[in-house]
Amino acid sequence: MSDVYLNQKFVGTFDDGQKLAQLMREDRRRNALSSNLNVFYDEKSDDVYVENGRGRVRRPLIVVREGQPLLTEKHILQLEKNEISWSDLIKQGVVEYLDAAEEENAYVAFFEKDLTPEHTHLEVTPLAMLGMATALVPYANYNQSTRLNAGSKNQKQALGLYAANFAVRMDMDVNVLNYPQSPIVQTVMHDISEYDKHPAGQNVVVAIMSYKGYNMEDAIILNKASVDRGLARSTYFRPAVAEELRYAGGLIDEVSIPDKDVKGYKSERDYRFLEEDGIISPEAFVKEGDVVIGKTSPPRFLSSLEEYSLASSTRRESSLAMKHGEQGIVDFVLITENEEGNRLIEVRIRDQRIPETGDKFTSRHGQKGVVGLIVPQADMPYTGAGIVPDIIFSPHGIPSRMTISHLIELLGGKVGSLAGRKINGTAFDVEPEERLRHELLSMGFRENGVETMYNGLTGEMFQAKIFVGNMYYLKLKHMVANKLHSRARGPIQLLTRQPTEGRAKEGGLRLGEMEKDTFVAHGASLLLKERFDSDKTLVPVCENCGIIAVFDGFKNKSYCPLCKENTKISQIEISYAFKLILDEFKSLGLYPKLELESKY
Amino acid sequence: MSNVFKDYEDKFPKNIMEGLKAYIPKDTSETKTRKILEEAWKEYQEACVEAGECVGLVAAESIGEPGTQMTLNTFHFSGVAEMNVTMGLPRIIEILDGRKKASTPMMEIYLKKPYSAGKDIRKVALSIKETLFSEVATGFSINIAEGVIEAQLDREKMKDIGITDAILGKQVGNHLKKGYTLRISGDSMILKCRSKEEALNELYKAKEKIKTIHLKGVKDISQVLPVRRGEEYIIITAGSNLRDMLQLEEVDSSRTTTNNIFEIAEVLGIEAARQAIINEVFKVIESQGLNVDVRHIMLVADTMCTSGMVKGITRYGVVSEKSSVLARASFETPIRHLINASLVGETDNLNSVVENVMLNQPIPVGTGLPGLVTTLKSEKKKDAKESN
Fold it and tell me: What is the H or E stretch that residue A19 is in?
């Protein structure tokens, strides 16, 4: 007697659970039960679990009976002629969806040739076990799984044509590759996902060799001429958004060129690109600090308005300016209204990004790297036929990672570009490498893809034959232009008087606890002090009570708040952070008394 | 000859001196010996740590950095499923924190002559293992009406371990509460309560207590494993009881050891505990294939043991002993440390590193240590006047 559960709720019992599951499956295939229903028979506990709720992950499989798949040549012919569709196959019970539980009762064959009478299902295609992005990796079945993870992860960060209507969209922080190409080596997933309509990379000539050590540690070398011709050129879009906010009392922000008497007025130069309406003119080349949208806000507190009764001058400047390190060309101006009915101004800024050292590139096999050097074409190595590679990839990236697919794609791409056709690199269903090699040989190349190359600097022939070919390379969205950061002097935080944090705020690079320890370990005492001088201050201290004294700017004199006048007050040099912690001690009710003594 | 050595006796540490004595041939001339010792003295001074070298922090970094690379935190003995030893970072943390209870107490028992060669090794091992009453009982039943607890005995097991009715009766009898009578008949042991009034609750409690009665072996030793180490046999145990173990006549008390540092401190003294800390930490680091100089570990062990008892590197242990309020507060629970310090009006003389980093002053190590001793002009005049 088996217990039967429907969506995890007990509904009754049945004599033979195995039989019940079998019957229900047959009914489902006959279309007597919903195709959305899954049955799982648990042999250990002799329970039957029926599920038809939402939220289950299911996948399609071809039903197999007595070692024969129900999908026949006839079906395929009909499918090709568009006489039947996928859903018809499901209705006919040829294909069914299994959820994770029912899969436990199934015995699935990977390939048709593996089928035995015990099998219950056949995989539609082995590619089905891969996700969308992973299936885009060519020759994926030649790789270690970790590299596939890396490869598919990298593809998601590639620059390409993310949306055909990008020119009229206001997306935050997007990149568009200027000349994207369709890959020479493709998988069926490229067809299925219509990859040609949103490509994300370019076919380049890659040579696997080292170049003066500039491509060590995964770095790659770019050909300057290729870059000049537009290789991996992309455009970066970022909108600046300003809203005319409404405040209590009918006051409102105003987009305009601020008057000179507005509080916080920048300089005339900063507003030079603004048109009369206070919005920047399109195609203006803006750099850091330039105002994009001029805006003024009403005073923060109404009371301050009465006090000085100079109503006009109390408006605050609240313009939107280019942030630190940013530059670009004004691309597009949009004036609209938001949900609250406030006037909304969006200005899209475009910036052309030419590849430079530090930009990140990758092939589709998790072989990412950063540009180490851009070499003039004259100095690049060349083949006997005069072919100069676009990219030089380091051979040290191969042995430890074992990305065989990277090497096969190079070969496949070479055949494809020479023969003028696309190469199929679908995982488990590839065009055999043997044939590619033959074709390469027939076209007058070495069958293993290597070629004699010459040193571009000296003209000498390299002793080793170099593996060159064509590959699909992707430019990733991590570009140095967005990350480069350094600081000598700059803004500090109000509370702690220590440098601000982060690139956007032109912050300092933190010398943390462990870094401090290294200074201590070296006994570099005074160097350490100097490093931490960023917030040093002179503080007046009353020598009588040991409390921090007050400096009176009018009298230009310090006095002790406890002992009043007539006590000796001395200046001490401490970090401002220590002054703060003394204040915190006081707030705890503690008396942090400083006892001063002469340093010498 | 010995005069030459005498001159250097106070300079060198004892073991280096002894090493030198053993190394220099007896028939070496006096001048030659003196020359050798002079060279050795120079070398020794070269090897010494410079004044102002930040040894503590270097030790911390030297242990801490390899610590980040440690993996695999348990070690299993083949053959015994229940025996595994905490290793890796968790073990190091356990030792340096000075935890009273090791998570996997373990002993290495060396044996005296005939046994160390493997004589009766299994028997010796089994005699060490602790046997509780529950291990020889297969089941219990309580008769409330008559106030009787009956325990079925596993005769076969008793024979194996070597527990006779006499031992059983004596051990159980020792732990019995007044008012119970004990009778062993056949395969069962019957406990009868004289006053029939005894509540079920009480009977149940008595039953649970009987289960934990110690019958045989050394207390707290839950597993034994005889192992061959080099030429001799030793016994590795799970559970530790150094004091009782050293009493046993088969045991070589000079080499037997435990991984419980507190037990060593209690039984053998603080110097032994210091060495135990060094050995245990070094064992872990070595087992991970890492390379840390022992002297770093020795320094840590020294700081843990200087007070005469084992103290952990925690806010309750070594850190609470720091003289500086700010240094203590910068470790953990700052507010508690500050408030306690303010209650007694503590003064911080800013003598150590942490406080001076907080104040942004030169720290008193390395180049920050030496000071210039001079008399100020004004003071000079004063001095001159006074002397006049």
Answer: helix A17-29
Would you identify the CATH topology of the domain A488-600?
DCoH-like (3.90.1800)
| Inter-chain touch B368–A526, beta carbons under 8 Å | yes
Asked if the structure places residue B387 within a domain, the reply is no
Please tell me the distance in Å from B349's CA to the nearest CA on chain A.
Answer: 9
Instruction: Please answer yes or no on whether A526 and B58 come within 8 Å at the CB atom.
Output: no
Nearest CB among A517, A523, A590 relative to B52 is that of A523
Residues of A in contact with B364 (CB under 8 A): 525
- Cβ within 8 Å, pair A588-B339: yes
Query: Closest Cα partner for A327 from A306, A308, A353?
Result: A353
* pTM exceeds 0.90 for this model: no
pLDDT tier for residue A410 given thresholds of 50, 70 and 90: very high
pLDDT at B340: 92
Task: For residue A520, list chain B residues with Cβ-Cβ distance below 8 A.
Answer: 54, 57, 353, 363, 365-366
Question: Between A517, A520, A532, which is nearest B360 by CB?
Answer: A532
CB-nearest partner of A525 from B61, B338, B368: B368
Q: Do A523 and B360 touch (CB under 8 A)?
A: no
Respond yes or no on whether ipTM tops 0.85: no
Q: What is the pLDDT of residues A314-353, one digit of tens each?
A: 788 889 998 888 889 999 999 999 898 899 999 999 999 9
Nearest Cβ partner for B367 among A525, A533, A578? A525
The CA distance from B325 to B346, in Å, is 7
Burial A557-568 (b: 16+ CB within 10 A, else e): ebbbeebeeeee
Other CB atoms within 10 Å distance of the CB of residue B246: 15
What is the distance in angstroms between the Cα of A538 and the nearest Cα belonging to chain B? 12
Give the rounded percent of residues in chain A with a pLDDT score beyond 70. 98
Percent of chain B with pLDDT over 70: 91
Q: What is the per-residue burial (b if ≥16 Cβ within 10 Å, else e) of B74-113?
A: eeebeeeeebebbbbbebbebbbebbeebebbbbebbbee
Q: Is the pLDDT of residue B293 over 90?
A: yes
Give the structural domain span for B196. Answer: 131-216
Q: Is residue B294 part of a domain?
A: yes
Helix axes B270-287, B261-268, angle to 10 degrees: 150
Q: Which residue numbers of A have CB closer than 8 Å to B's CBs?
A: 516-518, 520-526, 528-529, 532-533, 535-536, 573-575, 577-578, 581, 585, 588, 590-591, 595, 600
CATH number of the domain within which B60 lies: 1.10.1790
> What is the distance in angstroms between the Cα of B50 and the nearest Cα belonging to chain A?
11
Q: How far apart are the first and last CA of chain A?
A: 95
Residue B200 in this model has a pLDDT that exceeds 80: no
Q: Are residues B198 and B263 in the same domain?
A: no
* Catalytic annotation, residues of A: 218
Q: What is the pLDDT of residue B384?
A: 61
More confident residue, B151 or B295: B295
* More confident of the two residues A337 and B382: A337
Structure tokens at B140: 């219990």
Phi, psi of A506 (to 5 degrees): 55, 45
- Å between A588 CA and nearest CA of chain B: 8
Task: Give chain B's domain count.
Answer: 3
CB contact under 8 A, B53 and A523: yes
Q: What is the mean pLDDT of residues B122-147?
A: 80
What is the pLDDT of chain B when averaged over all its residues?
84
Coil/strand/helix, residue A464? coil
